C-alpha cells in the first residue's frame, strides 16, 4: 500500500471524538480503518462514503486526528481538502462535509457535484 505524505482530509475535534467512540465500542474490528470516499448517486450527482472498512489494493492509508484512514486513490481528486465535522444538536445531528471541490451541494449536505 502507498502512504500519502499529505493528509487529504481533516477531521474536526468533535468528529474525532465521535469516531473514536465508535472505534472503542465493544465488538469493533480493530483491523478496520475509517474509509472516506465517494460514489455516484444522490440528488447532486455524487454521495460521500464514510464508514469502517479494511484496506484494499488501490487505497492510500493516512492518519487524520489520530484516526487511521483509507481512501481509494481515485477519490482523492474529489475529496482533497475536505473537512469532516460532527454535529450533535437538536435539529442537526451527524457528520457534515465541507468540500472545497464541490461546485454545488444538496440541501441535506450528503451529496455534491464537481
From TrEMBL:
This is HesB/IscA family protein. Gene3D superfamilies: HesB-like domain (2.60.300.12). Residues 9-109 form the Core domain. NCBIfam families: iron-sulfur cluster assembly accessory protein. It comes from Terrimonas rubra. Pfam families: Fe-S_biosyn (PF01521).
Amino acid at each position: 500500500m502507498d502512504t500519502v505524505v499529505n493528509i487529504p482530509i481533516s477531521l474536526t475535534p468533535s468528529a474525532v471524538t465521535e469516531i473514536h467512540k465508535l472505534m472503542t465500542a465493544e465488538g469493533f474490528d480493530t483491523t478496520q480503518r475509517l474509509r472516506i470516499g465517494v460514489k455516484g448517486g444522490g440528488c447532486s450527482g455524487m454521495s460521500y462514503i464514510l464508514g469502517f472498512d479494511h484496506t484494499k489494493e488501490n487505497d492510500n492509508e493516512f492518519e487524520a486526528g489520530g484516526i487511521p484512514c483509507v481512501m481509494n486513490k481515485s477519490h482523492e481528486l474529489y475529496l482533497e481538502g475536505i473537512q469532516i465535522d460532527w454535529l450533535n444538536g437538536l435539529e442537526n445531528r451527524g457528520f457534515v462535509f465541507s468540500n472545497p471541490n464541490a461546485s454545488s451541494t444538496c440541501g441535506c449536505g450528503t451529496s455534491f457535484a464537481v
